[in-house]
Amino acid sequence: SKNGCARIFSTVVLLALFFLFPYFLQDVHFVLSKLKTRRRLLKYMQTNYSILDRFLDVVKTQPEKPFIHFRDETFTYREADELSNKAARVFLQSGFVKVGDTVALFVSNEPLFVWLWLGLAKIGCSAAFLNYNVRSKSLLHCFSCSGASALVAAAELQDAVEEVLPSLLEQQVTVFILSDKSRTAGVESFKDKMSQASSEPLPKHLRSHLSFQSPAVYIYTSGTTGLPKAAVITYSKLWALVWLLSLSGINSKDVIYVCLPLYHSTGFVGITGAIDQGITVALRSKFSASQFWDDCRKYNVTVIQYIGEIMRYLCNTPKKVNDQSHQVRLAVGNGIRADVWREFVHRFGNVQIREIYGATEGNIILMNYSGKIGAIGRDSFLHRHFHPYALIKYDIVKGEPLRDSSGFCIEAAKGEPGLLVSEISMRTPFLGYVRDLQQTERKKLRDVFKKGDVYFNTGDLMCIDEDNFIYFQDRVGDTFRWKGENVATTEVADVITLADCIKEANVYGVKVPGQEGRAGMAAVALRDGLNFDSADVFKHVENFLPAYARPRFLRIQGSLDVTGTFKHLKVKLTEEGFNPNQITDPLFFLDEKEKDYVPLTPDVFNSVTSGKIKI
User: What whole-number distance in Å separates Cα of residue 464 and Cα of residue 392?
Assistant: First the structure.
């Protein structure tokens, strides 16, 4: 019959489309989900419905549901509401914090961090999240650029505060310490006042001045290449970050494990994403590889967050018979390497991994919703239509995009590394950094494809394969040029860490007198109980890396310096170079004649720098 033939024809067409475009339905679903969140945002904007309003609604509908598990304590949504009311009243009653002020939080991961943030939101104040690892000048810089009028610090950070206290008091800054009494003149205690404050709700008119364009929080960049910068997170932008978790597949039945710093956007999204779904957070003060899975079992965790090297740290722990005895079904984060991805799933079970790409201050988010190992997202015409972006050719030596004879940027071809840029528009704004117009402007690229257009410069080199999967290559500042070739530090580090004796590697380029570009160098940490096997490492890099990408120098360290979110610090290492007269760590030199990494003695160093030894 005609109907039968039509059905057969339709089936054949659908099968052909599926065969030719196997990811098309996933692409459509992802874009539709993003458009749905966009419509939700517009609806919220009409009523000025903030993440705080969502929290208060959850308190009404499920007051006794656990909100935060922390160590052996559990706090319900009702208790969180009451405690944040108390915190808000301390700020107001002190007379030092006014409605609309900014208050800096210098606090590690604990429930009180959340009560303070919620309390500040209830009185229409914004919060600046200071990295609790910063000290001295960096601490003062971070505080000052937020424009905060007050600082709240954890008791264990009092020494760090006292170091900069004269400068703070000179600026007439109010300093609170989270303790029952203060031991220092000029510092106000907080906990005693909070215990005595009323837990009654705060009147809504205190925050009536807020709009979706008002700053909710300030979150700082990691500062791997200089002093941290404070990114503005408006109430509108905050919703966009919150919905990353729902786009990843989290639902109202989940329990999420947050062990990343709350001062960082990923950790904070764990809290706010939980509020959006009305779910429970298992909060840990600090990531611990040895306690990770025990915590997951203890709190019945179903969703975990990761960043940087966390997954590799977990894979490096001793194997246990109960490695797959847990309820975790979803891992959301960024920065997992392909080899670690495979190992993690093989060892810990069928955990769905959602790799996300995005900078706190950025205006583009990519997500690997297909589960393609190693990819950070997919390139689809639908996504580009609603959120225009491109990979453009980049000159590593000059440190700028390549432009054609008309002065416009050139799109990179499939399989060719290119700088990821995203169009700045009303739909995809770039809010920049607080009180730093120069750094804000540096992140903008103008006249990219036509006169007058403006794009956000991610500073990241990407590559799109034939199947339209997007892969991270390297940071622009991290990629260096040697022997006429571009060397991607992340790729080299991935290869080096596959050597048996090496646990961790940080790759960077160092200047060598008389040589163009920079020679590769790697700071490495060895696996527990293993010595450096120089011949094996040489053989490994020779087999897996082209000659120009092989590190010429190795530096053996007990541990590698990282930021609070596990990003390797390269600036100091690059400046120190490879001089054995100034570096106490063991140094090795790639000797192609000996087929080995040999000790880098002062004599070898002098021969290399004088040009006697050619590299």
Answer: 11
